[in-house]
Amino acid sequence: MTTPQTPAPDELAGKVVVVTGGSRGMGKEMVHAFAARGAHVVVASRKLENCEAVATEVAETYGVRALPVGFNVSSWDDCDRLVETVYAELGTVDVLVNNAGLSPLYPSLSEVSESLFDKVVAVNLRGPFRLTAVIGERMAAGDGGSIISIGSIEAIRPQPHALPYAAAKAGLHVLTEGFARAYGPKVRVNTIQAGAFLTDISDNWPEGLQEEMEPKIALGRCAQPHEVVGTVLYLATSASSYTTGACLRVDGGWA
What we know:
- The protein is α/β, with parallel strands linked by helices.
- It has one domain (16-250): Rossmann fold (3-Layer(aba) Sandwich).
- It contains seven helices and seven strands.
- Helix 1 (25-36) packs parallel to helix 2, helix 3 (76-90) packs parallel to helix 4 and helix 4 (114-141) runs parallel beside helix 5.
- The longest helix has 28 residues, at 114-141.
- The model has no long low-confidence stretch (mean pLDDT 92).
């Protein structure tokens, strides 16, 4: 028997899902997971050609609509253009995943430039704010929806090599609770507080960082990108019908 806590297998079929940073890493895994369940997907990222490649792949594999959109999440105007493009092409948004993020390396805290700091905050916090505000307002005025942001364990366990990033991700916690109240009860807003995932970003970690981190993790290892998918699907469907304003840790048991 299907209940609100046991989503129908086809619950996502025909839904429209927007994934920022959807052309690689965890975002690409999410795009495939939603498309495999019959959702139409928007692959949004900075390099249009990468978005087009992923969109073609999932459309051919799963027979769904896949819309590639090149945009810069740090740009207020680009965020608005993404929203207008999606609604013009697909008519609605049922799920938004704020996944795009970055954490550039810097030689020391005193050498963090103003431009680097502003860029990190713009990508990790300002962009998710704008997209959540505009899409969330439309969801609340329509049939509702789910908004999921990808946060970081850095928000509560900040490390010196990523302080601007950690501060921006901590800001997502504030946005999560605030937007959940602003757009409830029709829109649910949650954050996944991700631990150490081995994506292309991890390729630029300082030497020895992975080996330093893994003993602090109860599962004894860093995560693969696909291991975020189950939690994303949970928050996107009626399985999480009474979950909003939450920050759910997916960090392998970080100490």
